[in-house]
Structures are given as structure tokens and as C-alpha cells.
Amino acid sequence: MAIRLDPEGNETRELFRLFDDFAGKSILEIGAGDGRLTWRYAGRTARVTAIEPDAQRFSRSVANRPGNLKQVGFLNIDLTTFAAHNTEKFDIAILSWSL
Amino acid sequence: MVHALETIRSLLKPGGVLIDLRPDGHPPEFWGYAGEDPILLGYLDETDDFVEYRQAAQAMEEAIENRWFQPQKRGEFDFVIHADSLEEMRDYLATEWTDAVIPDEVWSNARSWKPDRVALREVVHIGILQTV
């Protein structure tokens, strides 16, 4: 068997226990990594913009994208650069182990 | 880090929500499984992340003091990485967690107890905050 990350699903169980108002919302995920968390909540949202500055993790996130989650856009960019060019306001920001 | 929180606030709509997931800054635990009861093998050594997570917590406190965000809810959970052996865990950490070191004590305990599989357990905090 390979490495298993949180097979118990503790991360999303606690997240959804505390907050589950994702329907119809626009999300900015900062430090999305390889998309592990993104794929677990994205199906509940209207749209996700996920940014990740590390090129290797970004590549894995794109490669791992489930086919049914077309509402997720991944960008290989850091927060400062993203903010300098972005004009959109988001309903929710997720800091994913990244501050 | 405080500047990053100010930037995030500027990207949110009025009344927008910030969800902050972050390890609590304590050393993650290695557990070995050999039979029914897990055995604590020791703790992960990190050079950078502990300091950064504590700085992050301070930055969040400052952002709250500045009234950029107001805490709504808090929680925590165990994030566990499972591997079939300590060697497999070492190889994973070498690529994904580059400042992490498995101390000699953990290797020694693993040799003594010969676990069938190992796990790395980290406590992670979740904060739900709203823009003010």
C-alpha cells in the first residue's frame, strides 16, 4: 500500500462540522498544495480559485483533478502576485496550512 | 504574515469568511501499530515549521486585535499520515516535508517493537473568522 493521508476523513469532517455554507459561494484557496483538500470540498461550491506557488505541487493538483469538478481553477502563483492582478471579491478564503 | 492577512481581507467581500487551517505547532507524533494497541515511537523533528506556525498564530491574533477579522468558531482534529513502514514514511517526508527529520529514538523504537505499520499524527486547528 502507498502512503495514506487522513484516510479517516478527519479534516473535512471537522471543517464541515464548523462551517458548511459553501453552496453558491466563490472560494479563494491559498496554498492549495496538490489539491487534496480542494477536491474534498469543491463539489459543494459554485466556484473555486486555488492558488499554489510551488510548481511541483501545482502540477500534481492539475494532474489529480477529478473530471467532474470543472468549477475549480488552479493557478501557479503566490498570494501577493495574485492580489496585485485580481479584481474579484470572494465569499470565502481558505488558508490551507499556508500562513 | 500579518500583511498576508490584510491582503486576504482585501480579497473578500464585506462579511466574507476566512477559514484558517493550521497545525497547532506541537511536534507531530510517530505511532507504531503491532497488534491491537498503538505504541508511541517518538516525535518528529522540524527545523522551520514549528517557528512558522507559532508566528502564524501571533499574526492571526494581531489581525483580530486590528479588527480585520472576528473569530466565529474554532475546532481541531487529528491529521494522520499512514505508511507501511518507517522507511516508507521517511521517503515520503523527504519529498513532501523537507525540513522534517525522524530522530534516532524513533528508529530505535521501531527496531525494537517492529510495528506492522506506522502513522504520523499532527493536531490541526481550524478557525472560522468573519471580516469586520
3D architecture notes:
With 99 residues, chain A is of the alpha/beta class. Chain A has a single domain, classed as Rossmann fold (3-Layer(aba) Sandwich), CATH 3.40.50. Chain A has 4 helices and 5 strands; from the N terminus they run E-H-E-H-E-H-E-H-E. Chain A has a 4-stranded parallel β-sheet with strand order 4-3-2-5, with helices on one face. With 132 residues, chain B is α+β, with helices and mostly antiparallel strands. Chain B has one domain (2-131). Chain B is 36% helix and 43% strand. The interface between A and B is large, with 34 and 38 residues.
Write the layout of secondary structure elements.
The complex is a heterodimer of chains A (99) and B (132).
Chain A: E1 4-5, H1 10-18, E2 26-30, H2 38-41, E3 47-51, H3 55-63, E4 72-75, H4 79-85, E5 90-96
Parallel strand pairs in A: 2-3, 2-5, 3-4
Chain B: H1 2-11, E1 12-23, E2 29-33, E3 38-43, E4 45-46, H2 49-65, E5 69-83, H3 86-96, E6 100-101, H4 104-113, E7 117-131
Antiparallel strand pairs in B: 1-7, 2-3, 2-7, 4-6, 5-7
List the keywords.
heterodimer, A: 99 residues, alpha/beta, Rossmann fold, 4-stranded parallel sheet, 4 helices, 29% helix, B: 132 residues, alpha+beta, elongated
Number of helices of chain A: 4
Percent strand of chain B equals 35-45%
Termini of chain A, distance in Å?
32 Å
CATH architecture call of chain A: 3-Layer(aba) Sandwich
Contiguous helical run count of chain B: 4
Number of domains of chain A: 1
Uncertain runs of chain B are none
The SSE string of chain B, one letter per element, is HEEEEHEHEHE
- Gyration radius of chain A, rounded: 13 Å
Mean pLDDT over all positions of chain A = 92
